[in-house]
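Why predict the complex rather than its parts? Because the way molecules touch one another can change local conformation, and only a joint prediction can capture that. The input here totals 305 residues.
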Amino acid sequence: MLTVTSNKYTPACNANSGGVSRAWIFDPADFTWTQAAATAANPLPPYTAVALVSGATLAGGSGFYPIPFYYLTASYKATHTRKNTANKWTHTFSCMLPQMSSGLTEYIANIQSASTCSSIGLLIEDYNGIFTVIGEGVVNGTAIAQLWRMLMDGTEEDTGKNIDDDNAVTLVIKGDYNRKAVQYTGTLDSIVALQETV
Amino acid sequence: MQAINLNIKEEFKSTVVGFGTSGLPLGERSQDDLVALAEMSAYDGYSAKFFEELPTAEQIQAYKENKLIQQTEPVAEEPAKPTAVEITPVVNEEQEAPEQTTEHIDQ
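Output of the joint prediction:
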């Protein structure tokens, strides 16, 4: 090829399911993700390892925080657009957190603060068991050159009207970036080991 | 085979790095896991410091080759199969045998 090196894609021959099975929120500055060097054939290799950066500790409040969304209400979507040579991916995660309460208000207020002062990292596991990292801040021990900010934007609180309406907050976290999100190859155990402990 | 030193420094034995199928602290990781981590240290920017002595690329390659050989089961030798089947025709003597003639040629 003159200008690009094309590669192949072979879909896995297994059941393909929609939906997000698990999701975690994290401080992008707390974790470093390991990624092999990009090649012409694979310009966006997956992350193969994750560790807390120096100074961040689970005891100190760092870690992956599970998002306690209601079953089958979470989704992640990324939409690509372009202007001439500039690419934009709009990443959107949403999920339903049941029952308005002071606890939920506190939870949402915290995410709002994080969205104002820094940004939010998201790690999701879909129903195919694939992990995807969104809004990370450190790769191979170095802060990524272009800041990727995922922020709460579009969240809605709704009591519903009828007895069988949901009384819930629909949490929406959005962010634009210049590429697709990258997958993480480790298993659930490797994530659980880095879950918050405070 | 070159010996490979995968000892983790004492101060990092309780450090957790998530990768592969486990999130166990480095001091409890298997040899294979530590080889994988040593391999990633070439570009991850932080894990080289975990090892007392970082294995060289040659040592890692030799370890992986040796592992592969160990995992490769020898192919069992099967008894030689006959290349042709010998067919012995069954003759029913009562039916097939030509009738005996009792003709005599008088000379």
